[in-house]
Amino acid sequence: MNAREIQIEIFKKMTPEQKLKLSMSLYWSARRLKASWLRQQHPDWTDEQVQNKVTEIFKNART
Fold first, then answer.
1. What is the Cα–Cα distance from 12 to 36, expressed in whole angstroms?
2. Which residue has the higher pLDDT, 63 or 49?
3. Taking the alpha carbons of 12, 6, 21, 63 in that order, is the dihedral positive or negative?
């Protein structure tokens, strides 16, 4: 069994609540990573500017 198959089996055994918690955790981690990157690119920006840009980016995100 390869890593992907193992991961799929783990996901199949998760409850809907566990899947939701995992997806929310991944979402907020992605937002924090984007904010960190923006701070590196724009060290002069305020926290409010960074958060506004993160919100804009995620609002316009496509899958």
1. 33
2. 49
3. negative
